[in-house]
Amino acid sequence: xxVPATALAGAIVFGMANGAIAASFAVSGQTFKVGASxxxxxxxxxxxxxxxxxxxxxxxxxxxxxxxxxxxxxxxxVKVPDMPIVLTINAGGGGKPATAKGxxxxxxxxxxxxxxxxxxxxxxxxxxxxxxxPKSFGQSADHVTIIGxxxxxxxxxxxxxxxNGLKLKVxxxxxxxxxx
Length: 180
What we know:
Elements: H1 2-17, E1 32-52, E2 58-72, E3 74-79, E4 85-91, E5 98-117, E6 120-124, E7 137-157, E8 160-162, E9 167-172
Antiparallel strand pairs: 1-2, 1-3, 1-7, 2-5, 3-4, 4-9, 5-7, 5-8, 6-7
């Protein structure tokens, strides 16, 4: 009995690590900001979805999957509600980008100058991820480059996320500025 259960658990972990199965968790309900001077990614997929808070509150999101990504001059900021406090994380500077494998982003918005290689727009989202809503809109590209990334996000997960040159700081008062 242990062998099939162990094999199933191993297959699930392997699928999550390779981006085939999304890690599922309740979101906080609070957004955070992610900025980068440049994102380079291979294996790009995007489609609509929903994330849920513990109390069941649903938020519509754009889901982006990227098989492997490099993020230059990464900045992530989270503002503490109703207080002049912002937590910031910086990484990927000095020409040594932050990297991610199996990156999954649930976002409210994304801005920047984007270039897609071999893009396919209007695909059925279930062709991109079996957990997506049937007959819903999806798009994919072999490679994406986004210059001046400004993203408002609800959740991010990755099989591996390497933050080269990591700097985490709690900023208070007049220094409590978000990434953008």
